Amino acid sequence: VKSIAVLTSGGDSQGMNAAVRAVVRSALYHGLEVYGVQRGYQGLLNNDLRQMDLRSVGDIIQRGGTILQTARCKEFLTPEGQQKGAEVLRERGIDGLVVIGGDGSYQGANKLSKLGIKTMGLPGTIDNDIPFTDYTIGFDTAVSIVVDAINKLRDTMTSHERSSIVEVMGRHCGDIALYAGLASGAETIIVPEVPYDLDMVANRMKENFASGKRHSIIVVAEGAGTGEEIGHGIMTRCGMEPRVTVLGHIQRGGSPTHNDRILASQLGDFAVRKLMEGDSGKACGIINNELVVTDIDRVVNTKKPFNMELYNLALRLSQ
Ligand code: F6P
């Protein structure tokens, strides 16, 4: 491998810049040429690549978003689009590609790898829904944003003896809700991985209220339903009117935590080293603090297991 490219794709996440920086600087350190692809796979199809040097990634480790920008590209879902993408890279003499993104981005990397391009995936998403890695880049920051919001909500809920429903992102994965809920002492955590019973939630709120716990926080993962739906369901069951907060894209912005910056730095450097060793069609991750690679084909065809132990712990502690 003499020349590689890097792109960010799908929904952005905090720490993507730190990952781009690590890929570029590690590649240059090892004497490779490195190109940044603008706007994900869309930019690849538009031949929108620029050569990166040490200064192209200066002053970005602390910045949210992605300097390479990102897009969700329909054309790249077609075999013709994928063929075109592979040709653009070949024509430029680029033999390796690092793709930073979530599930959809990995599918694209998988296709390119089958067309002979050496690819490495890095898990860049706030959702933490990628299997074969304990954490994805951006998850830690998103969770800390949710925890901060819940702390603020709890202040005013306590003053007014009210309940609050906080709807968080995560697509089909409940990890943001679970980790933020546990870390903020939420009374109820609703996630798509565990069936829930609104009668039970409403009864519990009523009992808590009667026994002196006069405020509560319910965290809802968007994959399990909307905050509005749950709030309405609770009101019709027990007459209480929880206030609903939808945190939305706030969860995807801001400066990454040190955990996300370090994870991104480790994985970015690891991806470059793996490409240099001749590895391809792999996704990089961290399991029990060890950097690992897994066949990307396996990653895109596996559902991430839900951490029931942590969920049960949150249940036990939230009485
Ligand atoms: O995958 C990241 C994510 O933020 C999800 O949590 C959310 O469901 C989705 O992207 C939102 O997508 P968009 O930014 O296109 O509205």
From TrEMBL:
Residues engaged in binding ADP: R21, A22, V23, V24, R25, R154, G185, A186, E187, K213, R214, H215
Co-factor(s): Mg(2+)
E.C. numbers: 2.7.1.11
Domain Phosphofructokinase: 4-273
Function in brief: Catalyzes the phosphorylation of D-fructose 6-phosphate to fructose 1,6-bisphosphate by ATP, the first committing step of glycolysis.
Positions annotated to bind ATP: G11, R72, C73, G102, D103, G104, S105
Localization per record: Cytoplasm
Protein name, as recorded: ATP-dependent 6-phosphofructokinase
Pfam families linked to this entry: PFK
Uppermost EC category: transferase
Originating species: Paenibacillus artemisiicola
NCBIfam families registered for this protein in UniProt: PFKA_ATP, PRK03202.1
Reactions that this protein is recorded to catalyse: beta-D-fructose 6-phosphate + ATP = beta-D-fructose 1,6-bisphosphate + ADP + H(+)
Superkingdom, taxonomy of origin: Bacteria
PANTHER family per UniProt: ATP-DEPENDENT 6-PHOSPHOFRUCTOKINASE, PHOSPHOFRUCTOKINASE
Residues bound to Mg(2+): D103
InterPro entries, A to Z: ATP_PFK, ATP_PFK_prok-type, PFKA_ATP_prok, Phosphofructokinase_CS, Phosphofructokinase_dom, PKF_sf
Keyword Kinase: yes
GO molecular function, one term: 6-phosphofructokinase activity
Pathway named in the protein's UniProt entry: Carbohydrate degradation; glycolysis; D-glyceraldehyde 3-phosphate and glycerone phosphate from D-glucose: step 3/4
Subunit comment: Homotetramer.
Family to which the UniProt record says this protein belongs: Belongs to the phosphofructokinase type A (PFKA) family. ATP-dependent PFK group I subfamily. Prokaryotic clade 'B1' sub-subfamily.
Keyword Metal-binding attributed: yes
Signal peptide per UniProt: none
